[in-house]
User: What shape does this take?
Amino acid sequence: PNILLLGAPGAGKGTQSRRLTESFGVEHVTTGDALRENKGMDISHLDLEYATPGEYMDAGELVPDPVVNEIVKTALQEADGYVLDGYPRNESQTEYLDSITDLDVVLYLDVGDEELVRRLTGRRVCEDCGATYHVDFDPPEEEGVCDECGGDLYQREDDTEETARERINVYEENTEPVVEYFREKGVLVEVDGEQAPDDVWADVKDAVEANA
Ligand code: AP5
Ligand code: ZN
Assistant: This one.
């Protein structure tokens, strides 16, 4: 199936995407990871405010559409079934997505602001396999070490409280209209994202099975 996963920064998109890839054999397409791998890419020829994606990301701002649209187009063309996470983030990206693919399920993980900030500032990520932990909600067995692969855990540069709040503001301004767009279309499946990860997963799995 082609799955779109919407939700604010820290709502649990990465966490649920990992389970979706394992259970449904779909490709995880995430603009955040793709951009982190290309933080230093030279985009000065586009004549924008900054010369690299990383400068936008560290400010909590959106990376410009031409850069992101190209990444998504290539990734979706290569995937036989996907979960798309972190895209679209504004109306222009939504129109672009509509023009290049067909969606089977659109999920929205609903989580309140203060919970988002707690999740983002406590998040730790494995530098080798990308597994995600939380210092309080989902700590690894040994502090700073990945349970799955033994890799070192690090904190993302944009998970400081200040940048996290800026990302949530940018989300509310630019991406809430995207959620509204799919809600009005009548295709949005809303999931209570404040539940424990296993309970969120139960709802996500049901929704995909019902719509795929
Ligand atoms: P991106 O990487 O997409 O980040 P994001 O959307 O801000 O989402 P996150 O990865 O931060 O959160 P998540 O929902 O995946 O949460 P997670 O599962 O880890 O984007 C980063 C930047 O790239 C953007 O700011 C922008 O600059 C740029 N960018 C990306 N896409 C773009 C686009 N399309 N256009 C323009 N620019 C773009 O969970 C968070 C934490 O909570 C973890 O610690 C986890 O363990 C914990 N947790 C998860 N679920 C639960 C639960 N149910 N209960 C308790 N804790 C939980
Ligand atoms: Zn790991």
About this structure: Residues 7, 9-15, 31-32, 35, 56-57, 60-63, 68, 86-87, 89, 93, 119-120, 122-123, 132-134, 137-138, 158, 167, 196-197, 200 surround BIS(adenosine)-5'-pentaphosphate (ligand 1) (CB under 6 Å). The chain is about 45% helix and 15% strand.
